[in-house]
Amino acid sequence: MQQIPTGSLVLREARPGGTVVELPGCVEVGGRAFVVMAGPCAVENAAQIEEAADAVAAAGCPVLRGGAFKPRTSPYSFQGLGEQGVRLLLAAASRRGLAAVTEVMDPAELPALEGVALLQVGARNMQNFALLKALSRLQRPVLLKRAASATVEEWLLAAEYLLAGGNAQVILCERGIRTFETATRNTLDLSAVVLAKQRTHLPVIVDPSHAAGRRDLVAGLSLAAAAAGADGLLVEVHPRPAEALCDGSQALLPPDLRELMRRLLPVLHGVGRELWRAPAQRMVAR
Ligand code: PEP
Ligand code: MN
C-alpha cells in the first residue's frame, strides 16, 4: 500500500482547521456552506449553455459547469467546442454572476482558460504528472477528480503534487470508481469521502452524475453525499437531455435541480451546514 510520507502538505495535520478555497466571485468551498456546481456535461452551442445557465442561476447554484475540452473515451464522440466553448461558458456565467468550472486536459489550453474560476482535472488525468506540475505553478483553484481506479492514497498524492509545487487552492472530487457493478456507470465511494475528510484538510465534493450514470439516482446520491460530510456537489443538468451530445442519460432537468436544492436543506441542517445560495435574480433576458 502506498503510504503518504509524514509531513506531506496534503495531510490534515498540516492544517487541522481545514482549507477553504475561495473561487473568484467570492464563493467559498470548504467552509460551513455547501456549494452546488451545476451545468451540462459539455458546452454544445450558445442557446444550450445560456438555457442551462438560467436553470443553474434560478436554482441558486453559484457555479456553472460545462466542458469545452472533453476527454471522450472514443475519438469518434463529440470532443467539445474547445476555445469557443470556453468563451460561451464564460459569457453565460458572467452575465449571471456565476463562477465557471471547466476541464483542462493540457497545459497548452491554459491561455484559453483565463477567467475560468476553477480548473478541473478530470478522472482520466488524475495522474497526468506534467499537467499537475503545470497547475502547481499557478495560483488558481484546481478541482482534482479521483481516477476511477485510484486508491484514496493515490488521489491524495496527486493532490500533493499541486501543493508541493506551490498551489494550495485544491478541491478534491469523488466521482465514482469502477467496480463489478454494472447497474450504475461507476460506484459512488462515500467511504472515500469520509476518509478523505479525515486524512486531508482539503475540501471534498461529490459528482453524483458520473458516479451513477443515470438521472434517477442523482438526487439520492447527492443527499447521501451531503449527509456524509461532503463540501459540495458537481452535478450535470441539461435543458433537453434527450438532445445532449454527451451524458444526457445522467443529466438532471432544470426542475430536478431546483427540487434537489430544496431537498438538500434539511439534510445540511441536520449535519450543521448551510446551503450556499446565489441570489436568485440572475435570469437573463435574451
Ligand atoms: C466531466 O466532469 O465532464 C468528466 C469528464 O468527468 P470525469 O473526469 O469524472 O469522468
Ligand atoms: Mn459528463
Task: Describe the structure in your own words.
With 286 residues, the protein is an alpha/beta fold. The chain has helices at 46-59, 83-95, 129-136, 152-164, 190-199, 208-212, 215-228, 254-270; strands spanning 21-23, 27-29, 33-39, 63-65, 99-103, 118-121, 142-145, 170-174, 204-206, 232-236, 274-275. The protein has an eight-stranded parallel barrel with strand order 3-4-5-6-7-8-9-10, surrounded by seven helices. Helix 2 (83-95) links the parallel strand 4 (63-65) and strand 5 (99-103). The chain is globular and about 50 Å long. The model has no long low-confidence stretch (mean pLDDT 96). Bound molecules: phosphoenolpyruvate and manganese (II) ion (MN). Manganese (II) ion is lined by residues 41, 210, 236, 246-247.
Summarize the helices and strands and which ones pair or pack:
Elements: E1 21-23, E2 27-29, E3 33-39, H1 46-59, E4 63-65, H2 83-95, E5 99-103, E6 118-121, H3 129-136, E7 142-145, H4 152-164, E8 170-174, H5 190-199, E9 204-206, H6 208-212, H7 215-228, E10 232-236, H8 254-270, E11 274-275
Parallel strand pairs: 3-4, 3-10, 3-11, 4-5, 5-6, 6-7, 7-8, 8-9, 9-10
Antiparallel strand pairs: 1-2
Helix pairs in contact: 1-2, 1-8, 3-4, 7-8
Bound molecules: phosphoenolpyruvate and manganese (II) ion.
